[in-house]
């Protein structure tokens, strides 16, 4: 009989690809969501509509434990890509990336599920001082301490963030944080979702996952212009200015400051994970360029 996997984060960029991948690889999918309608909608950056891949919808709020009664009933496996990637709810990395995922771990442990796959980030040692990384790694520690069989997936950047480069190029100008000479290898959500299903089936406690192309941020920005057939216009936002911006924003709103610091730091450190994804950034940009949709959500 097919095993039931609970997918938490099912309406997010990665989560939608994960719902589809688990379904297509023969699992029964229970999707945890706070909005059933969102499962039926395609997400930005080519994330698919997934209602047809979901066997059971569980409507609940991961921040409200009293809405999660019965969540783990009949669940064999848990996958979570819950996290804050864009600020929407006024909540912090600590509240979502850590505490919400810790709650899932506690519920999974109590229910005695067979395995838990959790999505954190690549390069945690180097950027461990960032609040987002601290929060993710607290969730990782909770999972490790739980004694549940688990795998931590550690991706480099996502193609969703690369889609922002194409949207900027379309508008005629791309902004880079710093000189953009740092290297990374972003991965397509569909390729990463396959890694997440592999993680459920493997005995590895951790899997790093990057895409096939290692390039600099500047090369990625130039590639977007090239695919659109336009000359590259790149504006460098100096690191000293951005660092000052982090301090200023943090004075006004700590969580926005933490998010902005993550974005700024990603502009200066390398992030090259094991190259597992197959989809090239050029082919992804070509796919985005073929339709006129602007994908970058409003902040
Ligand atoms: N972007 C990258 O380059 C990158 C790289 C490495 C790791 N990661 C990590 O990968 C994970 C998934 O990223 P993603 O791009 O798929 O994120 P995403 O599109 O923003 O999706 C995040 C998911 O978490 C849920 N969530 C967030 N805040 C919530 C709240 N207050 N209450 C209930 N649910 C909430 C969202 O639900 P709703 O749809 O209902 O809001 C959504 O299902 C994140 O933890 C991120 O840190 C990202």
Descriptive report:
- This protein is an alpha/beta fold and 299 residues long.
- It is globular.
- The mean pLDDT is 96.
- Helices cover 42% and strands 15% of the residues.
- The protein has a domain at 4-156 and 186-209: Rossmann fold, CATH 3.40.50.
- A 7-stranded parallel beta sheet has the order 3-2-1-4-5-6-9, sandwiched between helices. A two-stranded parallel ribbon has the order 7-11. Strands 8-10 form a two-stranded antiparallel ribbon.
- Residues 9-15, 34-35, 38, 62-63, 81-86, 88-89, 91, 96-97, 119, 121, 155, 157-158, 160-161 line the site of NADP nicotinamide-adenine-dinucleotide phosphate.
In terms of topology, how is this protein built?
Elements lengths: L3 E5 L4 H12 L3 E6 L2 H4 L16 E4 L17 E4 L12 H19 L3 E5 L11 H16 L3 E6 L3 H12 L3 E4 L5 E2 L4 H13 L4 E4 L5 E2 H12 L5 E4 L1 H14 L1 H13 L14 H10 L9
Parallel strand pairs: 1-2, 1-4, 2-3, 4-5, 5-6, 6-9, 7-11
Antiparallel strand pairs: 8-10
Helix pairs in contact: 1-6, 3-4, 5-7, 5-10, 7-10, 8-9
Bound molecules: NADP nicotinamide-adenine-dinucleotide phosphate (NAP).
Derived structural class: alpha/beta
CATH architecture of the domain at 4-156 and 186-209: 3-Layer(aba) Sandwich
Reading side by side through the largest sheet, how are the strands ordered? 3-2-1-4-5-6-9
Ligands, ions, cofactors:
NADP nicotinamide-adenine-dinucleotide phosphate
Specify the CATH homologous superfamily of the domain at 4-156 and 186-209: NAD(P)-binding Rossmann-like Domain
The N- to C-terminal Cα distance equals: 44 Å
Report the uncertain regions: none
């Amino acid at each position: 009989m097919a095993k039931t996997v609970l997918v938490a984060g099912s309406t997010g960029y990665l989560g939608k690809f994960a719902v589809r991948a688990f379904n297509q690889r023969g699992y029964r999918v229970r999707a945890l969501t706070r909005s059933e309608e969102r499962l039926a909608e395609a997400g930005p950056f080519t994330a698919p509509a997934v209602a047809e891949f979901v066997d059971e919808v569980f409507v609940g709020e991961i921040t409200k434990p009293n809405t999660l009664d019965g969540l783990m009933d009949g669940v064999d496996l848990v996958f979570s890509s819950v996290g804050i990637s864009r600020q929407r709810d006024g909540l912090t990395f600590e509240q979502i990336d850590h505490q919400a995922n810790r709650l899932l771990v506690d519920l999974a442990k109590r229910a005695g599920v067979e395995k838990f796959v959790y999505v954190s980030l690549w390069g945690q040692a180097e950027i461990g001082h960032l609040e987002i990384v601290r929060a993710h790694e607290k969730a990782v520690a909770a999972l490790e301490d739980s004694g549940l069989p688990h795998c931590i997936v550690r991706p480099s950047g996502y193609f969703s963030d690369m889609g922002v480069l194409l949207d900027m190029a379309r508008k005629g100008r791309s902004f880079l944080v710093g000189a953009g000479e740092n290297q990374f290898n972003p991965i397509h959500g569909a390729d990463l979702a396959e890694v997440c299903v592999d993680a459920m089936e493997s005995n590895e406690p951790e899997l790093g996952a990057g895409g096939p192309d290692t390039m600099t941020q500047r090369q990625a920005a130039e590639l977007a212009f090239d695919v659109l057939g336009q000359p590259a216009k790149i504006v460098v936002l100096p690191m000293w200015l951005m660092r000052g911006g982090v301090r200023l924003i943090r004075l006004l709103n700590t969580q926005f400051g933490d998010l902005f610091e993550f974005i700024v730091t990603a502009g200066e450190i390398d992030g090259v994970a094991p190259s597992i994804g197959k989809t090239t950034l050029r082919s992804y940009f070509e796919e985005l360029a073929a339709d006129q949709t602007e994908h970058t959500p409003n902040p």
